[in-house]
Description:
Helix content: 10-25%
Number of helices: 4
Number of strands: 8
CATH superfamily: Cyclophilin-like
Order of helices and strands: EEHEEEEHHEHE
Number of domains: 1
Strand order of the largest sheet: 3-4-6-5-7-2-1-8
Largest sheet: 8 strands, antiparallel
Distance between the termini: 20 Å
Shape: globular
Amino acid sequence: MTPAEGDPIATLSTTLGDISFVLYPDIAPMAVENFVGLAQQGYYNGLSFHRVIEGFLVQTGDATGTGAGGSTIWNGNSYPNEISDRLHHYAGAVAMAHAPDGASGNLSQFYIVQSAQDSVDKTLAKTLTEAGVREAVVTAYQAVGGAPYLDNLNTVFGQVYDGMDVVDAIAAVECGEDDRPLEDVIVNSVTIGTYSAAQSGSTPASGASGSDSAA
């Protein structure tokens, strides 16, 4: 998908390359506000991807590097989910991980979905349809893959448009039994800006748009 001119975007500069994604403040305002605020404070700089599961997701955002930490711009207080049928866990979706205490609140940890293009087969597509998932959403999942079982559970607030090859590279690193990479992959910095086609020298990632209108 290609962002619209002027859309808010973020770029993660990692030790394996850059990942750029569009943000959806109109759909997930608290998640975007918290992410942008923490990024501008430099919170994410130097953090590792502490949870990596190839074919599923790559996760970062914990200053302790253990998966047990997190923070927010609201003095560390968690904030609620912002679930919308306009955003889904397609491959490349950027979503909040729940607070480590297991509650439904969110802090600073987030993940990027890294699912194979064929991860939603005909059987799963049929199950989604029978569960009442809209045809356009099922079709998009079949086209690009994703993790539909996370819909209605976690807050999607962004969608990668450039750098999925970097996400794939992170997902491919060797990990231990706790899903932590044996050699750290680090977020060097996070840059917040607005999308400009004239300034973008990259080829946008193909696939479904992260946002769509509910029928």
